[in-house]
Write a structure and sequence with these properties.
There is one protein chain. By secondary structure, the chain is mostly beta strands. The chain has one domain (46-214): 6 Propeller (Neuraminidase). The protein has helices spanning 6-13, 18-31; strands at 47-48, 58-62, 65-72, 76-84, 89-92, 109-113, 116-123, 135-143, 148-151, 166-170, 173-181, 186-195, 200-203, 205-208, 211-214. Strands 1-5-4-3-2 form a 5-stranded mixed beta sheet, with no helix packed on it. It has a 4-stranded antiparallel beta sheet with strand order 6-7-8-9, with no helix packed on it. The longest helix has 14 residues, at 18-31.
C-alpha cells in the first residue's frame, strides 16, 4: 500500500481542495498531540420519546442535537427522533401535518448542509412476493429550523436506485458512491454528484487506474 505525505496528497487531490486542507490540519493536530484519546460513557438518565433499537439508520449532529432517521427492527421506520445533548432528552418530530414525508427505509444516507439534512436512497420494507427489498433513488431535504420535509425534484439524470452506499458533502455538492441495487442485484462502483443549491444532478467523470468510470444510470 502506498504511503502519501502531505505534499503527495496535494498533488494527487489538487492544491485547492478543501478536503486536503482539512486533512493537513488534522495531521498537524496529531503531530502536535492536540488530539487525545477519549473514552465511552453511557448516558443512563435520558428522558422523553426514546427510539426503538434499530439498524441501518442515519445519525446527524447539528448544533447540540442528534437526529436519527429511519432504520429497521421489527418494522422499517421513517420516523425522525431528536436527542438534545444539553438536556439529555429525546423527542420525535411530528410529521402528521406534513404533506409529504420520505417512505420508510433502511441503509440510506443523510448528510448535513448548513442547518439542513439531505437524504438519498436506501431500501424499503421487504416484499415477500418479490423476495427483495426495493431500492430508492429519491432525494429529500429536512430543514431543522422549521422541522419540515421537502422532496427535491432535481434536474438532470438521477443515479441508479441503491442502498448501502456512502455519501459526503464538499461545498454545495453531495457526493454519492457505490451501494447495492436490489432491482439489478448488483454492487455499484459509480460516483454521482448532486448540487444542493440548484437541485441538479451532475454526471461525474472519475478516472481509476487510468480508466474512466462513468456514473451508472
Amino acid at each position: 500500500m502506498a504511503c502519501y505525505g502531505v505534499e503527495n496528497l496535494r498533488q494527487v487531490i489538487g492544491k485547492g481542495a478543501d478536503l486536503v486542507e482539512e486533512m493537513v490540519a488534522t495531521m498537524d493536530q496529531l503531530n502536535h498531540r492536540k488530539i487525545f484519546h477519549g473514552y465511552w460513557d453511557q448516558l443512563d438518565e435520558t428522558r422523553g420519546c426514546l427510539p426503538e433499537s434499530r439498524k441501518g439508520t442515519s445519525m446527524n449532529l447539528i448544533g447540540n442535537e442528534i437526529y436519527i432517521f429511519g432504520g429497521f427492527s421489527r418494522d422499517t421506520y421513517n420516523d425522525l427522533k431528536v436527542f438534545d445533548m444539553g438536556t439529555t432528552r429525546w423527542r420525535e418530530v411530528d410529521t402528521s401535518a406534513m404533506r409529504v414525508i420520505p417512505d420508510p427505509r433502511v441503509s440510506h444516507t443523510m448528510v448535513n448542509y448548513n442547518d439542513k439534512m439531505i437524504l438519498f436512497g436506501g431500501g424499503g420494507p421487504y416484499l415477500p412476493n418479490l423476495h427483495m427489498m426495493p431500492s430508492f433513488n429519491d432525494i429529500w431535504m429536512f430543514e431543522t429550523h422549521n422541522l419540515m420535509w421537502t422532496k427535491l425534484e432535481g434536474s438532470g439524470i438521477p443515479p441508479k436506485k441503491r442502498m448501502y452506499h456512502t455519501s459526503a458533502v464538499l461545498g454545495s455538492l453531495m457526493l454519492i458512491h457505490g451501494g447495492y441495487s436490489s432491482e439489478g442485484k448488483i454492487s455499484l462502483s459509480d460516483f454521482n454528484l448532486f448540487d444542493i443549491e440548484v437541485h441538479k444532478w451532475i454526471k461525474a467523470k472519475v478516472i481509476m487506474n487510468g480508466k474512466v468510470v462513468e456514473a451508472e444510470a
